[in-house]
Amino acid sequence: MILPIVAYGDPVLRTMATPITKEYPNLDGLISNMFETMYNAYGVGLAAPQIGLPIRLFVIDTSPFSEDEGLSEDEKNSLKDFKKVFINAKITKEEGDEWAFNEGCLSIPDVREDVFRQPKLTIEYVDENFEKHVEQYEGLIARVIQHEYDHIDGILFTDKLSAFKKRLLKGKLTNISKGKINVDYRMRFPDQKKKR
C-alpha cells in the first residue's frame, strides 16, 4: 500500500524517534508499504517519520544510483545490490574528510542542495528479523544511510545548510508546508490536512 509522505513542517519530522521491538504491530506489512511508497516516489531511502511514525526504522535501496555513468563498475555493483532495512540503528563512528553531494528529500520536494558529510561510517542495527549487525559503509551508501539516520533523530538535510542558503529557501519551504507544490506522489501537508 502506498502511504502519504509527510511534508516539511510536520512536527513528526522533528521528533527523536523511539526504538521498537519485534512485537511492533504488523511490522512486515509496514516495511513492505515503506518500500512500495519509496519506489512510487522514486526515492532511494525512506524513514518511518516520513510516513508519520516516530519510530527508529528506515529502508534503503540504492539501485537507482547504479545507473550513474561517473561510477566505477565496483561502485555500480555495490549500489545495485544494496537493499536493506535498518531498525533501532545507531551510528557509532563517522570518519574521513567531509565531501559534498547534492541531496534531496521526499518530504521536501523540489529542493536539492549540496550537503557535506563524512565518507565512512560504522553502524549498529537490527534487520527485519531482529538479527543484530555491526557494519561499515562508505561513499554513496554511507551518505544515504546518514540522510535516513538523520530522519530518525529529527534532523533534515536543510539543517546542514548555511544560514544564507536557509534564508534563500525559506519561501519554498513555507510553500511546501502549506501544500503549495505540485508532486506526483501522495503527500500529507501539515497546514492543510489534505492528501494527494
Could you describe the 3D structure shown?
The chain has 196 residues and is of the alpha+beta class. It has a single domain (5-181), classed as Alpha-Beta Complex (Peptide Deformylase). The protein is 26% helix and 29% strand. The protein is built from 4 helices and 9 strands. It has helices at residues 27-40, 73-80, 139-152, 163-177, and strands at 5-6, 45-47, 57-61, 83-95, 99-105, 108-117, 120-126, 132-138, 187-188. It has a 5-stranded antiparallel beta sheet with strand order 2-3-4-7-8, sandwiched between helices. A two-stranded parallel ribbon has the order 1-9. Strand 7 and strand 8 (132-138) form a beta hairpin. The longest helix is centred in the C-terminal third of the chain and has 15 residues, at 163-177. The radius of gyration is 16 Å and the shape is globular. The mean pLDDT is 94.
Write the layout of secondary structure elements.
Blueprint lengths: L4 E2 L20 H14 L4 E3 L9 E5 L11 H8 L2 E13 L3 E7 L2 E10 L2 E7 L5 E7 H14 L10 H15 L9 E2 L8
Parallel strand pairs: 1-9
Antiparallel strand pairs: 2-3, 3-4, 4-7, 5-6, 7-8
Short description:
This protein has 196 residues and is an alpha+beta fold.
Extended strand count: 9
The proportion of strand residues reads 25-35%
Helix content: 25-40%
CATH architecture: Alpha-Beta Complex
Which strand order spans the largest sheet, edge to edge or round the barrel?
A: 2-3-4-7-8
Task: Please indicate the count of domains.
Answer: 1
Major sheet: 5 strands, antiparallel
The first-to-last residue Cα distance is 14 Å
Order of SSEs:
EHEEHEEEEEHHE
